[in-house]
Amino acid sequence: MSGKDQGGMGGAIGLLLIASILWGTTGTVAAQAPEVSPLAIGAASLGIGGLLQCVVGARSVWGHRNALVKNKGMVLFGGVNVMIYPLAFYSSMSLGGVALGTVISLGTAPLFSGILERVADGARLTVRWYFAAALGILGSTLLGFSRATEASGSGSGVVAGCLLGLVAGASYARYSWATGRLMQVGIARQSAVGSVFGVGGLLLMPVLFFTGAPLLSSAQNLMVAGYLALVPMFLGYLCFGIALVKVPASTATTVTLSEPAVAAALAVGLLNERLGVMGWIGMALIAAALLILMVRNPRNERVLASVATHQIPCDQGTHCGICQPDPNAELAR
């Protein structure tokens, strides 16, 4: 890997960490509007944020309209998962607590990403990945059990929060993968992100229409919605989309495991949430899984660097002579 590539990778990791910090504030900020349903919070934050992504990238989306239409199935797949993610994510935090919701949602995303890349792309899962997955699953289980025993509310609510966190983690992995696949076939970052998040934002508008009235009942609620839409959802995903140009979805979702640490620290420090010993052990296991997955494999980097790829997708599915079989043709089937 060249110095330029290493710099690009380092910059992408930095952008992912910035996005993670911004996303880590969502639960604590959403808790400042307790009378607003998590569905309304989710629809407002990523619905408005997604449409803003589309507006910012409108020129690029229009310029790549033919390629996007050709890969409309992938765009719709990503958009549907963008719609699912905030509804499940904020509901998970509402039922299970901010720390549990973010850790389960983000802690399982790399696992779902690995499985998706194995099934859809034929990527090989290493022993290291399986070991990290086992640690992540064990850590999530311990965290959930800790919250169920420590929480003053219903244990069934914590279980529901865990299940919704799994749904959020899976949908996060799927739209990250879909966006990355669109960019792999030569669609510009702004076009890929703008189209996927624009579709997701549109799908969230009916949810916002039916649940969003409490957001207008006070200035504080409106400020909460505005912050969530503009800062973590718009700026955070802007950083995330730029980073996806340099790193695969599985790496991106792994780096963003730092979000739960931010969210948990804020939840414990500002919201007075309690984590028992098992909860902290679970957090440590998930952090260990993150570190294992982030360790670079020089052998894989040499193999990837030796494979020639095209910068512009082949026309009409024909082979250009220097690239692998045209992925655009595969996506359009």
Summarize the structure.
The chain has helices at residues 3-24, 26-30, 38-56, 58-63, 65-70, 72-96, 98-121, 127-150, 155-184, 189-211, 219-243, 249-255, 258-270, 277-294, 298-305, 327-331.
Kindly describe this structure.
78% of the residues lie in helices and 0% in strands. It is an all-alpha fold and 333 residues long. The protein folds into two domains: 7-295, no CATH class; 301-333, no CATH class. Helix 6 packs antiparallel against helix 9 (155-184) and helix 8 runs antiparallel to helix 9. The two termini are 33 Å apart. Mean pLDDT is 80; it is low at 298-333.
Structure characteristics:
mainly alpha; 78% helix; disordered C terminus; 2 domains; 333 residues; single chain
